[in-house]
C-alpha cells in the first residue's frame, strides 16, 4: 500500500491542533499531528498501544506519573490505558503510530 501525502486530508481539531491520517489497516495506523505553540493535547487514555515520534518542535509530555520535555528525534511509548497528554512549547509535528487502528479517528 502507498499513501501519498498529497492525497491525505488535514483535519482541524481546534485549539491549535490538526491531524492527518496516513496509512492504516486493521492492525496498525500512522497519524501526523501538528501543534501550534501553546496548544494542548489533553490528558486521556485509550486501549491502543501508541508510539509517538517527535518530527519537530518541543513538547512537555506526561505519561502516567512521568513528565519530560521532548524534541525532534525523541520517541515515546504509551501502553494501553495509561493516562497521557502534552503541551506544545515550540510549534511542531508528531508522528503517532497506533495498534490496533483508531476506529474512532475514522468515524469523523
From TrEMBL:
Enumerate the Gene3D superfamilies for this protein: Jelly Rolls
Any Pfam family matching the protein: Cupin_2
Q: Write the protein's name.
A: Cupin
Q: Which PANTHER family does the record associate with it?
A: H2HPP ISOMERASE
Q: Which domain of life is it from?
A: Bacteria
Please spell out the taxonomic lineage of the organism that makes this protein: Bacteria, Pseudomonadati, Pseudomonadota, Gammaproteobacteria, Enterobacterales
Domain named Cupin type-2 is located at 32-88
Organism, per UniProt?
Answer: Kosakonia pseudosacchari
